[in-house]
């Protein structure tokens, strides 16, 4: 992750499943101790935008395709150096497809335990207003921020073996770094203006110890969860309210709880996009749904599932 975005790691709440978060802590500690890749001149950043590959279809063909956007990393708002692509870049990618009549719709292929609360509702709003059919699919994790994003789709398809779906909620882990800095020979002095009595109050209270966590929870975390739940109720009115406690469910149980619409495979999700597109545009024609050719949206040929930023299925 980018050193320039450390503030978002340590000072902002997360929509994330805890085991998934803990699995990424070595990376965070590596950043703190300097044992990770830095932004060096001799390292090229990956492109933040994608372009459509040339379509291997017959001249004059009106056949349509489905764009598959992979969301396989922690959810972050901005691109991370040698790390996840941010939701802002994902929106720019999808913007490029809006006016392309050859694109029937989009599948979000999700395997993520969540990520930053920062920026996630914005991506949800964007997907809710997207003009083409969007179907979310998971065969692994679709938790917290990742589920927030997926819920904005027209439908959610889960593999029956999907590991964990749900984790609707928010939490924070606040890092008191004073001891770390002191070990580096840095003495930290924090001062506030006389009139700034309420500035960072909930954070300052939390730093005093567990008995002072209440104001931070009420002022920072509870509003995030209230908004999360409100959006879930709007996007999925038949969802079982029990899921709002934050538990996760397997694919089959998630269907029972109203977290997903059907069980299936990535192919099921792709087929469903074609069907929704045909209902939306009954005069449109489609190419064979066996999609013998798979092209990435970054202009390189991959086997299915190997594309870094998504594929076009033809």
Automatic annotation (TrEMBL):
<dbReference type="GO" id="GO:0008233">
    <property type="term" value="F:peptidase activity"/>
</dbReference>
<dbReference type="GO" id="GO:0006508">
    <property type="term" value="P:proteolysis"/>
</dbReference>
<protein>
    <recommendedName>
        <fullName>Peptidase S49 domain-containing protein</fullName>
    </recommendedName>
</protein>
<dbReference type="Pfam" id="PF01343">
    <property type="entry name" value="Peptidase_S49"/>
</dbReference>
<feature type="domain" description="Peptidase S49">
    <location>
        <begin position="131"/>
        <end position="276"/>
    </location>
</feature>
<dbReference type="InterPro" id="IPR029045">
    <property type="entry name" value="ClpP/crotonase-like_dom_sf"/>
</dbReference>
<dbReference type="InterPro" id="IPR002142">
    <property type="entry name" value="Peptidase_S49"/>
</dbReference>
<comment type="similarity">
    <text>Belongs to the peptidase S49 family.</text>
</comment>
